[in-house]
Amino acid sequence: MRRVIGYVFLLIGAFALVAAGVAGFWGRDAAATVPFNVNTTTVLEGTASGALAKSDQPVKVKYTRTTEAAPKDSTDDVVVFVEAGCIMVQEGDTPDCARAEEDDRVVTTTERAYAMDRKTSEVVEDQAKYVGEDKAVANMTGLAGKFPFGTDRHDYEYWDDTLGKTVIATYVDDVDIDGLKTYQFEVSASDDDASLSPGDDGVKDTDDDIRGTYEATQTIYVEPTTGSYVDQSATQKMVTSTGLELIDAEMSYTDPTVAKNAEDAKANIAKLGLIGTWIPVGGVAAGLLFLLIGLWLVLRGRKPNGGAHAAADDRTLVDA
């Protein structure tokens, strides 16, 4: 019986070692994948002035952005995100968003959909295949919603919606936020003749567009293991070719948004560490332990060579 139990332990030990190897070489890579259950709300606060803010002087504003994955439009390799953003002047009991024709506190509202590679976090080619012709952004490339898993200390191509092309997200420094290591990236975009808004035809990048100067900056703090945003601040200024200032705004993540992002990042780091480090290490340790116990039980369960014959011979000598 002892030998049978020993063989069972040997089998369990071998299985644990194989499982540890699979988790070590494949598990972390499989876990470092953008999930389908993303549904987040990000809030920035700051000031804005200009025609869109309906004020020549800076007024307090809040920018609320929701980001939700669309599993039905996604595939095993590509995830589709739908984003909606709204900047509201903060006067009285202000909602997160409203219809511009119904509330003059609305500064801007935006919507976009994009398809992202679940491994690299880069937007994929042929956006229309995933989000439809009416929502697809032409020639969209680079990073849009997050940085890649295992973000490095180097520059990245970063998509700018207004310019309709990528700009450079420049690595600056390592920064600690709420006990979490982040990489600071600086993004700067500008154009003296940018398409600031669709014209009366409602279609961007046509001769009817409202054009002018565009300047924007972003400071983004990225948790490198997950590639997720922890903190961000941004500025934007648009002036039409006729000299009308549309908007001059500066905003940054609210403290609760930063705290929530840091908390989520720490939880996701722990999950990746569990799958990529602790399960393999624990699997190896458990596998070796089971193998040693199994080997000991098998060897202890064996009868000494010649033991039965020796006993019989002894009895014969005594009887004689």
Describe this structure in words.
The structure is a single chain. This protein is 29% helix and 38% strand. It is α+β, with helices and mostly antiparallel strands. The protein has one domain (26-273). Strands 4-3-2-1-10-9-8-7-6-5 form a ten-stranded antiparallel beta sheet. The chain crosses the membrane at residues 278-299. Keywords: Membrane, Transmembrane, Transmembrane helix.
Layout of strands and helices, then pairs:
Blueprint (H helix, E strand, L loop, with lengths): L1 H30 L7 E12 L4 E15 L8 E12 L16 E12 L10 H4 L24 E5 L4 E13 L2 E18 L12 E14 L4 E13 L4 E9 L1 H46 L6 H13 L1
Helix pairs in contact: 1-3
Cα Rg: 31 Å
Count the strands? 10
N-to-C order of helices and strands: HEEEEHEEEEEEHH
Percent in helix: 25-40%
Low-confidence parts, pLDDT < 50 over ≥5 residues? Answer: 307-320
Give keywords.
320 residues, alpha+beta, 10-stranded antiparallel beta sheet, 4 helices, 10 strands, transmembrane, membrane, PorA, DUF3068 domain-containing protein
Brief characterization of the structure:
By secondary structure, this protein is of the alpha+beta class.
